[in-house]
Amino acid sequence: MKSKSxxxxxxxxxxxxxxxxxxxxxxxxxxxxxxIVSNVTVSHWSRGRCHTNTENVPSGRVALLLGTSRLGRxxxxxxxxxxxxxxxxxxxxxxxxxxxxxSGDNRRKGYNEPEDMRNALIAKGVPDSxxxxxxxxxxxxxxxxxxxxxxxxxxLIVVSxxxxxxxxxxxxxxxxxxxxxxxxxxxxxxxxxxxxVREWLARTKMAIxxxxxxxxxxxxxxxxx
Length: 225
Hints:
Blueprint: H1 2-45, E1 50-51, E2 62-66, H2 79-93, E3 100-103, H3 113-123, E4 131-134, H4 140-149, E5 155-161, H5 162-175, E6 178-184, H6 190-212
Parallel strand pairs: 1-6, 2-3, 2-5, 3-4, 5-6
Helix pairs in contact: 1-6, 4-5, 5-6
């Protein structure tokens, strides 16, 4: 009897460990499935809506330029910033849109994505009167929801890199905004690999936001464009 009791006591921790291994393996599998489904869904739905030629972009919509930092981590000019400015200016000068809504981060002192992008667009010949700033576009999800709920836009042309545009277009679809996108030039090499991994995770976070229809960090009063 004593020997059997000792075996039971020794066996219990093993069963618990096996149980936790199963739980952890299940959670990891669900996480991987969520990442894969989110990415496949976004890429599939946005197919044919991301344009590289201004002639294929629908006319008359407000262009939503998604913000990014003017400077990189080492203080150099951020290529993504330059490429997005070039794309937004090109789109404007093509006559496809008469207004540009710049949505970016301005939550800390000395960091102002919308202002930096406005100044760069003005330097490219875009009139200041055609530019509207959204200082609370802390995330792509926030930018898309605020474009509709705060700035009253039901149709948009999103301007950013292709991988970013895909996610923005899917968010637009889910919140009831008709949208196409104009792809800015992208980078190549190791940076692209790192951003691809980050984008996979961002799309998973997006799926959670859309599942619960979270509100942006800030909404506030409506602003007419």
